[in-house]
Structure formats: structure tokens, C-alpha cells
Amino acid sequence: MTNSKTKHKLTIPKFKQIKKENNKITMVTAYDYPSAILAEEAGVDMILVGDSLGNVVLGYDSTLPVTIDDMVYHTRSVIRGAQHTFVVADMPFMTYHGSIDQTLRHVARLMQEGQAHAVKMEGGTEICLAVDACVKAGVPVLGHIGLTPQSVHQLGGYRIQGKETEDAKRLLEDAKALERAGAFAVVLELVTEEVAAYISEQISIPTIGIGAGRGVDGQVLVFHDVVKYASPYRDKKFVKTYADIGAQIREGISQYVQEVKGGVFPGPEHVFTAEDTVVESLYGAGKAERKAEQVK
To answer: Which GO terms describe its biological process (predicted)?
Structure first.
């Protein structure tokens, strides 16, 4: 376990240095205070407060209903838990596709109210003006191409990207455009391994993959996927789970229910007792003794 108090938060210049040194960047999502603490203690380099919280935490079928208020609230919670880790907040659906002024107002909320260190935007060449404006305003931007969940209806579902030549060329063009616009790194989601590796070679900023194979500069997974914190849990080809917390939580709560119904909990070791004089004042001397026998 990493000592979070001695951990040095990554900075934008350090990200490029990590790529040059051929090291790997580790990133997980987190959506609240306790998961942020655990992620930081585990030693991750970055935490993403993803709009995937819509699916994972809020119970929506997609990320589309997630609002800027949701993102501010959850980002602020994560920041309180991970004070020594670089935290990126997702820009939710349709908060960066209007005017530049509207985009910057939404970004300002995530940075000022949410206290994020950077924001993430989905898209390629079509969002580069927004990326450029944010970077010029002093806001670090993490790009996101490949499978972009906010555009899932336009993409025709959760499909693997980079299977065809034209698609591969488009992804490379998008990555280079984001680099020129000033993005400090780019997420590649559900992209074929060969295409993701080639993109990583062609740009100077780090690539962080999720379902993008082994040739990228880092990996990101959802906290709840890493530890199977869900019920029922749906296995995913691109995910490796490292614990089964969901089963342990369910079993623990089930045992609690059984013990309460069976009169096992609380036991003598879980209760607080009053002085005899207090009990006598409530029940009377004789009744106090009988009451004590009843609760044994």
C-alpha cells in the first residue's frame, strides 16, 4: 500500500516524461470519498471521476442523463478523499458542444466547485476548438476517442473501433488533432490493439487504454469492475477483476439480517449498561432484577 501522505501528485509535464521513459500510467475511476481514499492508498497515478457514474452509481442505462451538477458533486467528494492524486472530471453530455462561453462556464464549475485538476472530453477533431479554448484558459484537457459512450446512439451501440482502414485513419487523425489542440493525454476506448499501438507511436502525448490492448501508455478501469462491486456483475472481455467485493458485501449483510432475526446480534459485547441506581429508578428494585434476567 502506498503512503498517500508522502505521495507526489503527478503534473502535466510529468505525464510526457512518463511516456518518454516508457513507463505505464495507472488510472481508475472513482465516484465518492471512500473509493477515492482506497484508490489513492493503492497507488494509482490518476483518478477519473467518469460520467460512467450514471451507469455504475446512479442506475441509468447510459451516461447521457448525467448532469454538470452530478459531476461537480461527485468530483468534490473524490477530491476530499484523494488529496495527493491527480483527479480528472468528465464533461457530461452536451456541456461542451455549444458556444465557447458556455463550455468555459461548465469547465469553470468543475474546476472551481468540483476542484478538479483537469477535465475530460469525448470526441476528436469536432471538439478541438473547445479543447484549445480550455487549454488557453489554463485548464488541462484529457481527450477521449474510440468508443465514446456519449455518442453511443450515433455509433450504433458499444462497438469495437478501428476494425476498418478508414476508421483507423479517422482515429489517428482525431488523436493528432487533440494533440495539436493541447490535450495532455488521450483515452482510447474499445480500439483494436494494433490501431491503438500505432496511434501511441505517432503522437507525443500519452495514450490511456480501456479495451485498447497492450501497446498504449497506460490503462484505465472502472473501480467497480476491478473489485466486482455490483450485483449481478456482467463480465467484460477487456476487464480483469482482482477481487469479488460484491459477493463479500452481500454475504456480510445477509449474515447481519439472519443474526438480527435470530436474536444473535446485538450480543452482550455490543451493548452499554446503566448504573443499578438508574435501572432501579426506572423499574423499581425488584423489577430491575427481573428485567436484568430477561435480557440475558
So the answer is: methylation; pantothenate biosynthetic process
